[in-house]
Amino acid sequence: MDLTPLFKPKSIAVLGASQNGNTIGGRPIRFLKEYGYQGAIYPINPKYKECQGLKCYPNITALPEAVDHLMVVVRAELVADAVLQAAQKGIKSVMIFSSGFAEAGEEGKAMQRRIQDVAREYNMPVCGPNCQGFIDHFNQVTATFTGSLVNGDFNKGPVAFCSQSGAMGYHFYGMAQRMGLGFSYMVSTGNEAVLTTSDFLRYALDDENTGLVASYMEAINDPDQLARCADLAFKKQKPLLVMKVGRSMAGSQAASSHTGSIAGEDRIADTFLEQNGILRVDSVGQFFDLFKVFSNPKRLKGDNVGIVSISGGAGVVMADDCERFGLNVVTFAPETEENLTQKLPYFGSAKNPVDLTAQVLTASEKFYDCLKCVADDPNTDAIVVFIGLLEHMKDILVPPIARLEKETEKPILVTWMACDDPIRKDFKKYGIPLYEEPTRCIYALGQLNRFRKALAHQSERKKQPTVAPDQSLTAKVSQLLDGDSKELDEMTSKELIQAFGIPATKDVLVTDKSEAGEKAAEIGFPVVMKIVSPEVAHKADVGGVILDIKDKDQATQAFESIMQGVSRARPQARLKGVMISPMVRNGLEMLVGIKNDPVFGPVLMAGLGGSYVEIFKDVSTRVLPITAFEAKDMLKELKAYKLLKGARGGAPRDIDALVEVLLKTSTLAMSLSDRISELDINPLLVFEKGKGVMALDALVSVK
């Protein structure tokens, strides 16, 4: 859908217009007039002939033209008919302030579906319902009733912000405006009946006035579309920031009831955002900190930081924070230290962090010379400056920093503790990010570095093809998934994964103790014997596993012991028999799994396996599809990666074979996403380099 009529309308109508400029129906007209909207404005309300000095019309059909945009401020039960009338009139876009739809129960959901049906039939963009509207700052379109505009704050700038909560979004916007942060767009999406957050993000990313796109999200309703937005952000080299709430159970439930959306599991949301190069923030304050650093067009080329401070203690704090946020307090080149030593008093420090001491600050030129030394060092990628108090020395300290900002391509960030408004205004004028607390400054620089790494990661990721479903294999294994059981037994689960090329042990099923010894001998001792039942997932917990069986007699005894023990522990379970497998040793136990998330779809997991997987929780996840590059990245995130590489003199493991299993498991998950809900391969033994892998156990849960 073309969103131009929505954001850049040449004419606007307001259904439910009010004479009172302080009401929901009156503020949009008031703001359009106050903030200089240049197009035609048509109030609609049968009560008035004139509204706020404008001719008022009794209904939509009475309008003198098919306007570009209609704002709807009427009761919920009247909205769907109004949207249909607008479409029949030829109106090009609609925004619905009214509440009482999907967030309010089944009747509201039905009314919202009517709106969706009309919008799709007429291909008409609709924002809302249950939203607070939007602002296009560069075209003076104030299609909102927010109280944030009552005080006259209207700063233009490079930030586009999209919020799924109207109140939270505009409270945030109001704070940012009072801080002097400039916006290109501000959008409240509401229930997203037609247009979603991703639609608005995509529009903003394509906008030439926008350099940074951010969003407050309560639910990711369309992950595929958001991933496409992330691709566009990568192509445009624009940062995409998201504050995704609902980390806690209480927060998730509140978000769902607020907009009628499914929040999804937060850990998977975290994974999805990270792998798509979207920077996640956890607070409103972090948003503001990043708006400052990303509003400056300078970008990092590396993670090496030079710190210049008037306080030795502040330098230590910032150095600690650099390590915490993934930055490196670099060692200066010898010539840099030598130059600084000549400029500093004997009790200062020329090493990084540089301790200027108060003596250097008495003259602008001395201060500039020290800053210049650090900026010119070949090892530094960014300069961080710490100052505290000293408002009376503003005219000595600010000009050297502003001068260096013009001369260097390296980002400069300043922490000035206990500064005043004149200092804030000076740094805003020069476009230099200013913070009043050192940790927030280093956090912002760390996120700038994360953005650099995310761009590099996305570049590598896009060089390789992603895994895809294999329909031929889907047809081949479909009969394995038929039946009334919610879980496949181990033998069937292994047969399924082997069909997709994942190595597993060759097993034999026995149903009578008389054949147990002979079948075990055919496999070759030692062997493992396990119960086979779709109702028994954790076999060891009910005596369903016996290891290291060395002869026929032990095999016969093991059969009896397993069948009797499981029958006592699970009398209702259907026991198919006992599976005999070779006893495989000398591999590192890993876990490979799949979970089908209701929001994000198939999610791949890899981690340290075996009996203690729930204790150590050393697991990495990715939302599918993935590339081989991402599969390797998953393994590198694990603490167990050191074991795979051969820690403490151990033999390196077959990482390439493990990566291949991750890719084949991904193909399986995508091919059967409508049939299986979970898959666990645990343990998957990873042998020495070049010797492959082997699945010893598998469990498939069926939808």
From TrEMBL:
Span of domain ATP-grasp: 494-530
Family: In the N-terminal section; belongs to the acetate CoA ligase alpha subunit family.
InterPro entries in the cross-refs: Acyl-CoA_Synth/Transferase, ATP-grasp, ATP_grasp_subdomain_1, CoA-bd, Ligase_CoA_dom, NAD(P)-bd_dom_sf, Succ_CoA_lig_flav_dom, Succinyl-CoA_synth-like
Matching PROSITE patterns: ATP_GRASP
SMART domains: CoA_binding (SM00881)
Keyword Nucleotide-binding attached: yes
Transmembrane regions listed in the UniProt entry: none
The protein's name in its UniProt record: ATP-grasp domain-containing protein
Gene Ontology molecular function, alphabetical: acetate-CoA ligase (ADP-forming) activity; ATP binding; metal ion binding
